[in-house]
Design goal:
The complex is a heterodimer of chains A (278) and B (193). Chain A has 278 residues and is of the alpha/beta class. Chain A is built from 9 helices and 10 strands. Chain A folds into 2 domains: 68 residues, no CATH class; 191 residues, Rossmann fold. In chain A, 41% of the residues lie in helices and 18% in strands. Chain B has a single domain, classed as 3-Layer(aba) Sandwich (Rossmann fold). By secondary structure, chain B is of the alpha/beta class. In chain B, helix 1 packs parallel to helix 2, helix 3 packs parallel to helix 4 and helix 4 runs parallel beside helix 5. The chains are: A alpha/beta (278), B alpha/beta (193).
Chain lengths: 278, 193
Amino acid sequence: MNVPDYNPELEEIEIQLLLEGVAQHYGYDFRNYALASLKRRIWNTMRAEQAKTVSALQEKVLHQPACMERFLLALTVNVTAMFRDPGFYLAFRTKVVPLLRTYPFIRIWHAGCSTGEEVYSMAILLYEAGLYDRCRIYATDMNTAVLSKAKEGIFPLVKMQEYTGNYLRAGGDQSFSNYYTAAYEHAIFRPWLRDRITFSQHNLATDGSFNEFNVVLCRNVMIYFNKTLQEHVHRLLYESLSMFGVLGLGHAESLKFTPHEQHYTEIVSGERLYRRVS
Amino acid sequence: MTFDLIVVGASLGGLHALEAIFAALPSDFIVPLAVVQHRHRDSDDTLRSVLQRAARLPIYEAEDKQPIEPGAIYLAPADYHLLVERGSFALSTEGPVNHARPSIDVLFESAAAAYEARLLGVVLTGASADGAQGLALIKARGGCTVVQDPASAECRVMPEAAIAATTVDHVVPLIEIVPLLTKLCQSSWKVGL
């Protein structure tokens, strides 16, 4: 993108063509992704694949399925952490858990769960609240590669110091190391943490609602979508939530710029926890 | 010359530099500012509220898809990259760039792509080279570039990296940045947005 004859208008056309080709040939629909961050990830892939133009990348992606797999991993952002943004989990613990106690059975959908760090975090939180036996967590992602990692529940041992700090700030009062076994460079999380989790593939752009949930978590997923797709997904989440169900978004996301704002009330100001009220 | 957006990058020492700039910006300054100040991933609203005390313009932590309004200052939230689309903000949790999230380069590169010659980029004090590549890209797309004079910076590394990366249009001491921005943006005031 630093070549002297760089033409941004032409590049946007090339990106549209690439995404059209990927959608038609592979069925992965990135056509309604937010352009600014998508461009960056396409540029990164171009560097890695040594493609000088988006068109050159398109040829590789369409003709080499292995290249498409790498492209898919590069396009979906899979940066996450356990108890990411601890204030959110603290608010969930103090304000949402009491609501959930009134339900005999709790269905939770974690949409866009990536490699699973936040799903295990929620499992730990619900276990400590004494609610885990009553829960079923559906953890979905469009990307099967990250889902298989999520199913393993093995995370880098070097991350545990950071995660322990997050856990404590999220209101955890146990010894965090009770939840995993250290082996070489890995922290292997206790298999029973997975007992109530169902991992499955689901694409927010193309798949519909598959159940009614008491809690829907979709954190830092929709920031990669443009307004059109964002509105589509907000409708999907809204339709998947039972009345008085709880919606959890990422720290810098809000309902303010969406058409569903009036259907929710904020449970805790600033922590992006909303309750469906109509 | 008219500008639709000013992007600002600051790191070590940035709090004081930003305070000085925001305090000097008049309340009728119309061109919006998008600011990356390097910060810890767990930092809360303190940065915004401290800066707001000094400023006459309203300061917001940018939210995803938030429209960019005239006469406002937007801060990158902690632990997110702040990107610009034409007319609105976008966020990303991709990995750190130049060891930073938010990264100045990410903001500058996306803003340069969206605003080209109608963009003004400012690099302030800091201890990294973040912002240098982004400022070079702003320059390459016809935008205007401003760097704090390294001699007036609490940490001169970042301004020097920016100066080394491109032919900067204006290198000025901290106290002259707002008068310069005001002069550069004068025609933007009349034209409006």
